[in-house]
Design goal:
By secondary structure, this protein is of the alpha/beta class. 40% of the residues lie in helices and 16% in strands. The chain has twelve helices and 15 strands. Helix 1 packs across helix 6, helix 7 packs across helix 11 and helix 8 packs antiparallel against helix 9. It is globular and about 70 Å long.
Length: 340
């Protein structure tokens, strides 16, 4: 069987590519600009192209057909409209990577299933994903376009450490603050529930849907089974670093309001996603992919990530702007406590 992944070298997709590269039943192709060729398994075939150059991609894929096509870098309707034109006659299954952040915010309940309403007034990213789903499902209903929708939540790998609050340059500055003994900001009171999923576990669920006829025309959320509070997540990170956690809780509303002044979108990432408790009911996925389970719990996955980050500091960039942002917020709140 043949699979084509557009992108294919990101956090989510790399776990899938690695898993399939070890499966003799699959012949895997990646279509991307070729910027991370050294990270790709040798058995994977690469097509160097810019997916936004539709005519060039169509020419390079001429005469090729696939059992599965999945686009990991489609973020708006124009992208899936292009994919529909390119692949409607070239694939038996098109898997769209949506997002669990598309589920209704504020949540009516913390148990999330695929039937939970899609609506997110806080985050344009999520609204775009919803619009993509609607376009693709319309094509499925009217023309039989073989779409499967996948909704990941917070997926990480050995190169990334999942956090709730960080700056535009990512998680690294928060790790530096922990190492320096400085307080780190956690949204809310730290007790809301969250799920983080290692990418190789996500790949179990995803690959189980590939080529599965029962997945056509359906949506599936793919997350691990482990449920943690945000305080537990941060404490586990601190434990892996071998430092004492100095948690500083700040309301998500406050972070959203103040973040605008620093061009930091906490409205989307917090109010539209991580500020509320969510527990994913993955029973629909497990009916089709019974082997889906958490094989790398967070206390193990985060140690893999911490070991990699600490041994590859050249790959990460410090963020003094975010560091100052945190210090200012904490100082302002502490001052307010003395003045009230």
């Amino acid at each position: 069987m043949k699979a084509l992944f557009i992108g294919g070298t990101g956090t989510i997709s790399m776990g899938i590519v690695r898993r399939l590269s070890e499966d003799p039943q699959w012949e895997v192709y990646l279509l991307n600009r070729g910027n991370r060729k050294n990270d790709v398994p040798s058995s994977v075939k690469q097509i160097t192209a810019d997916i936004y150059n539709e005519s060039d991609v169509a020419e390079k894929l001429s005469g090729m057909d696939f059992d599965v096509v999945s686009d990991f870098i489609a973020f708006d309707v124009k992208a899936v409209e292009r994919d529909y034109r390119l692949f409607k006659d070239k694939t038996k299954q098109y898997i769209f990577i949506s997002s669990a952040s598309a589920y209704n915010k504020p949540a009516a309940g913390y148990i999330i299933t695929e039937g939970t309403t899609l609506a997110n007034p806080y985050w344009e990213y999520s609204r775009n994903k919803i619009a993509c789903e609607e376009f693709l499902m319309k094509k499925y209903r009217e023309e039989g376009f073989p779409v499967t929708i996948v909704r990941p939540s917070h997926t990480y790998d050995e190169r990334h450490i999942p956090l709730g609050v960080h700056g535009k340059k990512g998680f690294y500055q928060v790790i530096k603050r922990m190492q320096q003994g400085k307080p780190v900001i956690i949204q809310g009171d730290g007790s809301s529930l969250w799920t983080v999923t290692f990418n190789s576990d996500f790949a179990i669920g995803f690959t189980g849907l590939m080529g599965n006829r029962h997945a056509i025309g359906e949506a599936f959320q793919i997350t691990g089974d482990e449920i943690l509070s945000w305080d537990q997540i941060y404490q586990t990170i601190a434990d892996a670093l071998g430092v004492k956690l100095k948690a500083y809780h700040v309301s998500s509303d406050f972070l959203s309001d103040v973040g605008e002044k620093y061009d930091m979108d906490f409205e989307g990432s917090l109010l539209g996603d991580k500020a509320v408790s969510v527990v994913f009911d993955n029973s629909k996925l497990k009916r089709l992919v019974p082997q889906m389970t958490t094989t790398i719990p967070f206390h193990k996955g985060v140690r893999l990530a911490v070991d990699y980050v600490l041994s590859h500091p050249e790959e990460y960039e410090e963020d003094p702007e975010f560091d100052t942002f945190c210090d200012k917020i904490i100082a302002a709140i502490e001052k307010a406590k003395t003045e009230i």
